[in-house]
Amino acid sequence: MDKLDKEILKILSQNGRTSFKQISEAVGLTSPAVKTRIEKMEKDNIIKGYSVNLDNKAVGFMVTAFISVAVETAARDEFYSYVQTCPNVIECHGITGHYFALLKVLFKSTMDLDNFLNKIQKFGETSTNIVLSTYKEPHNINLMDEEI
């Protein structure tokens, strides 16, 4: 991935609906060249897809929470399979420390969250943190200005 690919990714991460023509004008390539580069990044799974950034509360999901789960080793495959089927689980990460997994979940109410917690208790101990305020929304890393 070269600098031009990173510039294209930066443009697409700001607006996934930007046309090949607009991108080509911004990066100084032809539209077919931009299309070829984007298709290669899609094929290489650098670009995994395109999505809409929703306002969760505006569409009725009033509760965001992070759930840490201490899953027993023998139940890990079953746990991963289970969370894959749960539409309210937005993210699932394997983590270090006392807990094995960290889930980000969205629910319409605390009652719905409570029902979900009751279902996942069978996998192990949980610790839940409900989000009160969000000061920075998720976004893609800026590949042009990354700091490591």
Write structural notes for this entry:
- It is a single chain.
- β2 (89-94) and β3 (101-107) form a beta hairpin.
- The two termini are 18 Å apart.
- The chain has two domains: 3-43, Winged helix-like DNA-binding domain superfamily/Winged helix DNA-binding domain (Arc Repressor Mutant, subunit A), CATH 1.10.10; 63-130, 2-Layer Sandwich (Alpha-Beta Plaits).
- The chain has a four-stranded antiparallel β-sheet.
- The chain has 148 residues and is an alpha+beta fold.
- It has helices at 3-14, 20-27, 31-43, 76-84, 110-120; strands at 63-71, 89-94, 101-107, 124-130.
- It has five helices and four strands.
- GO terms for molecular function: sequence-specific DNA binding.
- Residues 1-62 form the HTH asnC-type domain.
- It comes from Lactonifactor longoviformis DSM 17459.
Indicate the topology.
Elements: H1 3-14, H2 20-27, H3 31-43, E1 63-71, H4 76-84, E2 89-94, E3 101-107, H5 110-120, E4 124-130
Antiparallel strand pairs: 1-3, 1-4, 2-3
Helix pairs in contact: 2-3
Short characterization:
This is Lrp/AsnC family transcriptional regulator, leucine-responsive regulatory protein. This protein is α+β, with helices and mostly antiparallel strands.
The average pLDDT score comes to: 92
The CATH architecture classification of the largest domain is: 2-Layer Sandwich
Number of strands: 4
Detail the poorly predicted runs: none
Q: Which strand order spans the largest sheet, edge to edge or round the barrel?
A: 2-3-1-4
What is the H/E string? Answer: HHHEHEEHE
- CATH H level of the largest domain: which superfamily? Lrp/AsnC effector binding domain/regulation of amino acid metabolism (RAM) domain
Q: Biggest β-sheet: count, sense, barrel? A: 4 strands, antiparallel
How would you describe the shape? Answer: elongated
Radius of gyration: 20 Å
Binned strand content: 15-25%
